[in-house]
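Per-record layout

source: Lachancea lanzarotensis
name: LALA0S01e06788g1_1
length: 248
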Amino acid sequence: MFRSLLAVRQSGQQQRSMLRTSVRMIRTFKQEEQPRLRINSAAPNFTAPSTQGQLNLHEYLGDSWGVFFSHPADFTPVCTTELGAFAKLKPEFEKRNVKLIGLSAEEADKHQTWIKDIEEISSLDKFSFPIIGDSSREVAFLYDMVDEEGFKNLNKGIVATIRSVYVIDPAKKVRLIITYPASVGRNSSEVLRVIDALQKGDSKGVVTPINWQPGEDVIIPPTVSDADAKTKFGEFKTVKPYLRYTKA
């Protein structure tokens, strides 16, 4: 009888100990500890499970550009169409030395089933870039992916605003940040256009005007004098002293 009572008491103690351990393991996200990403911030590195195994962001990107975009959950309608659209454009991104990385705030194993739906809906032969599993929301926190209300729910349920896009250059700098509301689908062609504009600017020392497309005229930065512009670009058209167009 004594042994039975002791066993029950020990079992109860073990359960309470496990409960205390479990409580200690619950992540408390604090706004004052959250990184603030800005244009030209270093892209935070992380290692996380993905549909292609453990993925270290910086190692995966290597000397490539990266487009890193996130989703609040698997089997969500808008996100399903977006992943399919990016997958179809993957060859175009590869021509520009860009790697794609998705993220969804659920387990990586679950993503594998979701991928079958993406392939079916978007008529893909094979979905071929990794989707990170972020069920803990640690990466969502690290990259500041949620709005004010979403932050309050970061530990529970679907957080509808884990819908961000980051363009990362080979130096691991963040060059573009766009966060979309839950109701608005992304424009994959616009992300590709931004890559073209950034790469053109980096290689030629120019900036691009509104709605610029490859092959169109670019703008000479105001910091470049007319004499230097003539030497560097040859002919250019002056609309205003601060607005000069040239071929690139």
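summary: Confidence is low (pLDDT under 50) at residues 1-13, 15-25. The two ends are 90 Å apart (CA to CA).
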